Amino acid sequence: MDRNPSVAGYFYPGSAAELRAVLAKYIDKKAPKEDVIGMLAPHAGYIYSGAVAGATVSRVAFKNTFIIMGPTHSGLGEPFSVWPDGAWKTPLGSVEVDAELAQKIIDLSDYAAADYVAHGDEHAVEVQIPFLQYIKPDVRIVPMILAGASLEIYREIGHAIARAIKDLKKEAVILASGDMTHYQSAAAAREKDMKAIEAMLALDEEELTRRYHNLHITMCAHGPAATLIAAAKELGAASAELVKYQNSGDASGDYSQVVAYAGVIFKR
């Protein structure tokens, strides 16, 4: 089953020419590339988070497939949803789903399930795809949506992803799509977010989860990030790096209530 774009013309330009021009501003093809296992990138409208997403993806040595995990915003469909087949369309064309890898993740996890409904009106996965297409037009994807859950469930899914990559000998990057603190002052957001980022850089999903709860960090990136860290460690992650951190006030000029964005790469 194919998926048509849901937020083209809203979160990002709806025409191919305009979209390419915008992406060209955000992506630095001369940036030094890293052999990454995974990355965290934001998923707001490009005017707000495109600079962070672009700077982060610019640092990645591309592989054939990107497993893209986003948090649910609608609550629809399966709680741990994997789009199993077909292609996703954007103004830049179609991107094929890596059906073999998608099915392997489903087979290895007690929680992941094939599902289309959860992805219907979601933007978290979709907004990442044009960045990937711009750099590698023949890239393949495994789209996933994760509901709120315990760390144990996120770890189980992360381990299933890692085992699927290893069992199939796939060249894949795991992309956690998510934003940081929502609707607080820029100063308060940064103070909390740096605590969460510190745990990510330490490759410590347990400490990330503890700080997420105890500090009441309103980051929608928690589930995808925790899942990514669990998978990345099983795949041999040695370090992580904060590439860029900004907030919506950098675009709007209003720093009283912001949404914050972090770009992190997880290196082999």
- Helix fraction by DSSP (H/I, runs of at least 4): 25-40%
Helix vs. strand class: alpha/beta
Instruction: State the major sheet.
Output: 9 strands, mixed
Low-confidence residue ranges:
none
Total DSSP E strands: 11
The rough form would be described as globular
Given the structure, what is the number of helices?
A: 9
What's the helix-strand series?
HEHEEEEHEHEHEEHHHEHE
Question: Based on the structure, what is the oligomeric state of the protein chains?
Answer: single chain
Strand content: 15-25%
Through-space gap between termini: 34 Å
Overall pLDDT score = 97
Taking all Cα atoms into account, the compactness measure Rg is 17 Å
Description:
With 268 residues, the protein is of the alpha/beta class. The chain is built from 9 helices and 11 strands. It has helices at 16-26, 46-57, 99-108, 129-135, 151-167, 186-201, 205-214, 222-234, 249-252, and strands at 36-41, 65-71, 80-82, 87-90, 93-96, 113-114, 140-146, 172-177, 182-184, 239-247, 258-267. Strands 1, 2, 3, 6, 7, 8, 9, 10 and 11 form a 9-stranded mixed beta sheet that branches. A two-stranded antiparallel ribbon has the order 4-5. It is globular.
Features:
268 residues, alpha/beta, nine-stranded mixed β-sheet, two-stranded antiparallel ribbon, globular
Please outline what is shown here.
The chain has 268 residues and is α/β, with parallel strands linked by helices. The protein contains nine helices and eleven strands.
